[in-house]
């Protein structure tokens, strides 16, 4: 398995700590080995241009083609051309975060219904397996 997510200019990142937690931004420049300059742009994602520690971001698979220190206008255009919002919604990380959000919003009755559905599924799989085993 080859590593493909590098800290590089144009990489779309998810902020995973602090007041902007859960928002998307784009790496504009690499400051040093621990910090990067990111920009939302603010009109699109709500993240202003700022320096952030690499430990506070999660790299995504999405990369846009921009220059170093790209202005907000060119960044918006690059993000629109790359159709990054649809790519983000289709990514595994976005689906995982959406599932986590849904689970957090569940009440006791919803969790109870999920438990019953899992039991019914396991019972059906076990029955099908028994049928296949008996016929073989």
From TrEMBL:
GO biological process terms, semicolon-separated: ribosomal large subunit biogenesis; translation
Keyword Electron transport found: no
Gene Ontology molecular function: RNA binding; structural constituent of ribosome
Keywords: Chloroplast, Plastid, Ribonucleoprotein, Ribosomal protein
Coiled coil segments of this chain: none
Cellular localisation: Plastid, Chloroplast
Protein name per Swiss-Prot or TrEMBL: 60S ribosomal protein L14
GO cellular component, one term: chloroplast
Subcellular location, principal: plastid
Pfam families attached to this UniProt entry: Ribosomal_L14e
Gene3D superfamilies: 2.30.30.30, 6.10.250.2270
Protein family according to the UniProt entry: Belongs to the eukaryotic ribosomal protein eL14 family.
Large ribosomal subunit protein eL14 domain sequence ranges: 48-121
